[in-house]
Specification:
This protein has about 150 residues and is an alpha+beta fold. Helix content is about 15%, strand content about 35%. Strands 8-9-7-10 form a 4-stranded antiparallel beta sheet, covered by helices on one side. A 3-stranded mixed beta sheet has the order 1-4-3, with no helix packed on it. A hairpin with a 5-residue loop joins strand 3 and strand 4.
Length: about 150
């Protein structure tokens, strides 16, 4: 079992340890209690403190000969390329006003690929495309429907 006390703080030299990963979407990185399977096939039980959000690159566990690190899973997003700083701010405001999360990816804004976001961006006349990307939200957001 991987518990909250196992999270972070490893200053040990991990060379010589087998690297294993837990590849999770943004939403999955917020689920603290569940069974997971690592990329190397290890089945583990997560029991993290309520409210924990795992971060990319976070080391969850160090064993005698292996360690577990969090990676992001590519997921469907709408990638917006704002024409100006003002448009970017307007889009960010409107996305947040609808309690959705937003991520930055270079010059692009990423939002979940959701019908409501598609309608919003279309109404705003924003230039966007569907893409697959690791989604790292700037805030946690709060959806009224879920």
């Amino acid at each position: 079992m991987v518990t909250g006390k196992d999270v972070g703080g490893y200053g040990a030299d991990l060379s010589g340890h087998e690297r294993d990963t837990l590849v999770l979407t943004a939403e999955e990185r917020q689920w603290g209690r569940r069974r997971v399977t690592t990329t190397r096939g290890r089945t583990l039980a997560l029991a993290l403190p309520t409210g924990t959000t795992l971060t990319l690159g976070e080391i969850l566990h160090v064993g005698p000969d292996w360690y577990l690190i969090v990676e992001g899973a590519p997921e469907p997003v709408l990638a917006v390329t704002p024409a100006s700083r003002e448009e970017a701010l307007r889009i960010a405001f409107e996305v947040g006003n609808r309690h959705f999360t937003l991520a930055l990816d270079g010059e692009r804004l990423l939002v979940p690929d959701d019908a409501a976001m598609d309608q919003l961006l279309t109404r705003l006349g924003a230039s966007f495309e569907r893409a697959q990307a690791v989604f790292v939200p700037l805030g946690r957001g709060h959806r009224h429907d879920g």
